[in-house]
Design goal:
two-stranded antiparallel sheet, disordered C terminus
């Protein structure tokens, strides 16, 4: 497998976009789950008397099991994105095609770069991403991607919240 390196600001912006895609898609998946849905976690062992001890019910939406489910094939969602030029900053950024009104590049090579960067980022930061996503944050894209990528944050912004 060829490994991308992100040494220039131009290449680095695709890494930011990959991080943004991951966090946004996770948050969208979490928001789509009924907040009342629960999952049992803990030990499923039965003691000699036939009782199960050590089980707890937790909200399913931000459970580790659900987050890992969402991560399966998450980078393939890059096909739903388009490369656009931000009207204010003039920087090239990836945005979900269904929410942007700006025409952009949806070519296979362009979106393959985003998918590849997404897979690389996920491989490098999966554990941190799962841990971060377990709790709610005011601006998850900015908070997580800035934490993982450092102070170089051009173009990081959350997508509009889905209600």
């Amino acid at each position: 497998m060829v490994r991308l390196t992100f040494s220039s600001p131009v290449c680095f912006s695709i890494r930011i976009s990959a991080c943004s895609l991951l966090v946004n898609e996770l948050e969208t998946g979490i928001a789509s789950v009924d907040s009342k849905k629960k999952i049992q976690i803990g030990s499923f062992r039965v003691d000699p008397s036939g009782n199960q001890d050590g089980l707890n019910e937790v909200p399913y939406a931000r459970s580790e099991a659900h987050i890992y489910e969402l991560l399966d094939n998450i980078c393939s969602k890059s096909r739903d994105y388009t490369l656009v030029v931000h009207p204010t900053t003039g920087k090239a950024i990836y945005r979900r095609a269904d929410i942007t009104k700006i025409d952009g590049d949806k070519s296979r090579p362009t979106l393959s770069k985003l998918e590849s960067a997404c897979n690389d980022f996920l491989e490098d930061h999966e554990e941190e991403l799962v841990k971060f996503t377990r709790s709610e944050h005011d601006d998850p894209v900015r908070q997580f991607c800035q934490q993982q990528l450092g102070s170089f944050t051009c173009g990081i912004s959350s997508m509009p919240k889905v209600h």
